[in-house]
Amino acid sequence: MRPTIVLVVLLVVWGLGGVAASLWPAAVLPWNTFGTALLLLSILDLVLLLRRPTPDVVRTMAEAWPIGIARPVSLQIEGGAQVQHLEVFDLHPPGWRVEGLPRRLRLTPDTVSRVDYTLQPDMRGAAVFEGVQLRLRSPLALWRQRREAGTRHQVRVFPNFAPLTRFALLSADRASRLVGAHIKRRRGEGTDFHQMREYRVGDSLRQIDWKASSRARKLISREYQDEKNQQLVVVLDTGRRMLAQDGALSHFDHALDAALVVSYLALRQGDAVGLFATGGESRWMAPQRGMGAVDTLLRVSHDLQPQPVATDYLAAATELSLRQRRRGLLMLVTNLRDEDIEDVLSAVRMLQKRHLVIVASLRERALDEVLSAEVRDHDDAIRAGATARYLAQRKAAHDALRNHRIAVLDVTGEELPSALVERYLAVKRDGLL
């Protein structure tokens, strides 16, 4: 319970007036009467405020939120039997970016007012909305009271699944282009028989089915498609390397978003998708087929967080070899340093005995910005030189892996989804599995 600025001003005026009235005896009685009336009015106003019922509040919002994406929240506030003036504050999770609150309202009797605002979560995992805080104003505007209404809600913040909703109505090829992947097509080639059709200019002689052609008395070609029911496992580093912040998201959040995109497109192609998180916190999701695997992937990964520990790549490769027996495409997403190369090389060589392995090494966008910035003074020159040296060491580490015929993607977080999709489609197109 707090007095408003109106009551504070009246009390100050009464106090100053009392000092002046003491110098003029004839004004003492009227001024004391004014003070008594002010006291009685403030008490009456306080009683009326305390007797007012708390308005009913209903919060409407999604139960699942994508990280970094603003989503709407709606508050429906029901008015009582009297006109009320109040301020609305929703007790959303701390740290989330909010637009549209706080809000001042005038509630009229027997009506429902609606407050719409947006929130943007900044961390994955479980999050709690407490009640809605209302600051009620007394009828004479002398007092304010803070009350809590509504119910407690718990929501889950997932990796950014917003792109998947755009992909749902698109073909796999169009969805791949939407994320920026460059698709190279080779018509009529593949490993699985798809259909028979008339010969087209450009078809190879190997595609012609001579028996069918003789029966139809025209050239008939066999059309093949990429093999289905193959397996893709995304291997995510949850160690200290992925704590690096790049823009609004960490490297790990960028990796999770990219894992969702490539997994969704692989499922659309008829393949099975799995997840292996290692380094800090560990998770395993065995490869699954069907679009329902996206929900499983979201549930398994939504609360994963990188930890400030060193990743043991060799131990991870040993565990993954025991879990994933069938040959598949393994996409390791990490942030390589030159001191990691020996461990990573040993781990990948172990996995290559059975699997096809691709290493995606995330690069901080700030490094590119430093090199592209204009050098104006001595500090800028030192910064640019140190950055160039670091990138040269990084390139040498990647080249060491490439010398052992290990595919390495050196990309930023924004480039990662398209790079993974493009490499996945290339592996399918070339029949490398």
Automatic annotation (TrEMBL):
Boundaries of every DUF58 domain copy: 195-405
Pfam families (alphabetical): DUF58 (PF01882)
InterPro entries for this protein: DUF58, vWFA_dom_sf
Membrane-crossing segments per the record: 31-50
Keyword Membrane appears in the UniProt entry: yes
Keywords associated with the record: Membrane, Transmembrane, Transmembrane helix
Protein name: Uncharacterized protein (DUF58 family)
Organism: Luteimonas terrae
